[in-house]
TrEMBL record:
Species: Priestia koreensis
UniProt lineage: Bacteria, Bacillati, Bacillota, Bacilli, Bacillales
InterPro entries membership: NRAMP_fam
A Pfam family it matches: Nramp
Protein name: Divalent metal cation transporter
TM ranges: 38-56, 77-99, 111-132, 144-163, 183-206, 227-250, 270-296, 308-326, 332-355, 367-389
């Protein structure tokens, strides 16, 4: 394999890792629920969230690449101990979501084969662990994310097509919405680039030795590609749900996304939902575990040495919690809102670091990217606090 081909493969892998980390069980449920409540106007929420997502990822991937340092090390350079604080937030959030991811994978197996969800969760954990037992785990993780992401995109397009959504109405309300929900924007942005997901692709590039100023174009392509992939999946799921809602069909509140697939494409659709849920959940388990551990690997040489085993322990612990306690819904909801607050904190650190010579040397960060980044910090900070207060009340 040529160096250029290998680089492109890693870039695509990093983009899919970020995208498939974002597309988990929560992503599928949130998109369906908000489409049900906002109708075609949810298209506007998706548009705004995509623009905010791009603003976040362009800044974060570039600064990580130029500095050649992981986010926690950048934070520790700015203020000793800050990196540890950020790492703790990221790992707790990643762990909580991973419990939900394991549960989602169990549900996927249950839909496909009729087996108990806990047995399905166990099988999913074994598959995820197997990725990190391979000698070249990074390459396998890249390839797995690409294949699963491709499968999800194709199935989403099929279900959207069968549900016959009102495309004209969707296009109009994407530009001129009749209603707006700030909580939906925070949830979407937090779920797509919040918490650990923000750094999954950037950290993957460092691990593949794609770094330095010469890698800025690669970081730009990778970050935009990741958002594009996740957005394509969300848009087609939105269209599928909109098609069902516009026909006046009732979506089952106990499992909204499964209901959409079934109403759009019958029993075949229900089975396809199982495939999508399984693909979304397993890739999210892998992405969450990998990125969460990447936040602590630089704190001690032993962590870096045994990184794959610590990732495996992370997956095992998430699975045990799900199988013994189940999905702590209130915790997951709270951490979801918390992810919306972690984002402005971590992005603020990145934007300050972009102008510190001890982090980036004499690199000059584009002014337009800085302005874009601070705009996202303010918007997400204000709406994140509002959302958190609403969740707690």
């Amino acid at each position: 394999m040529s160096n250029q081909t290998r680089k492109w493969s890693v870039l695509l892998g990093a983009a899919f890792l970020m995208a498939t980390s974002a597309v988990g069980p929560g992503f599928l449920t949130q998109t369906t629920v908000f489409t049900q409540s906002l109708g075609a106007s949810f298209g506007f929420v998706i548009l705004i969230s995509i623009l905010l997502d791009i603003g976040v990822q362009l800044n974060v991937w570039r600064i990580i690449t130029v500095s050649e340092k992981r986010a926690q090390d950048i934070a520790n350079i700015l203020l000793p101990g800050l990196g540890i604080f950020i790492a703790v937030l990221i790992v707790i959030g990643g762990l909580a979501f991973n419990i939900g991811n394991v549960g989602g994978a169990g549900l996927g197996f249950q839909v496909l084969f009729g087996i108990d969800a806990k047995i399905g969760a166990l099988i999913a954990a074994v598959i995820s662990i197997a990725v990190f037992l391979v000698k070249e785990a990074g390459k396998l993780m890249d390839r797995f994310a690409q294949i699963m992401g491709g499968v999800m995109i194709l199935l989403m397009i099929y279900v959207a097509f069968t549900s016959h959504p009102p495309l004209g109405e969707a296009a109009l309300r994407t530009i001129m919405p009749t209603e707006l929900d700030p909580i939906a924007i925070v949830t979407l942005v937090g779920g797509t680039v919040g918490g650990y997901i923000t750094f999954s692709g950037g950290h993957r590039l460092l691990d593949a030795n794609i770094k330095g100023r010469s890698a800025i174009p690669d970081a730009t392509r990778g970050s935009v590609s990741g958002i594009t992939i996740a957005s394509i999946i969300r848009i087609f799921l939105f269209l599928a749900a909109l098609g069902v809602v516009s026909q006046g069909l009732a979506i089952n509140p106990n499992n909204p996304p499964a209901s959409v697939f079934q109403l759009a494409a019958g029993n075949i659709g229900y089975k396809l939902f199982g495939v999508v849920m399984l693909a979304a959940a397993i890739t999210s388990i892998i992405g969450s575990a990998y990125t969460s551990v990447s936040f602590i690997r630089t704190f001690h040489p032993a962590i870096a040495k045994y990184e794959n085993w610590i990732i495996i322990a992370f997956i095992v612990f998430s699975t045990i919690v799900f199988m013994t306690i189940g999905q702590p819904v209130k915790t997951l909801v709270f951490v979801g809102a918390l992810n919306g607050l972690i984002l402005p904190i971590t992005l603020t650190i990145m934007l300050i670091a972009a102008y510190k010579k001890k982090v980036v040397g004499d690199y000059k960060h584009p002014v337009w990217l800085t302005i874009f980044g601070w705009f996202v910090v303010v918007i997400m900070g204000v709406m994140g606090v509002y959302t958190l207060i609403k969740q707690l009340l």
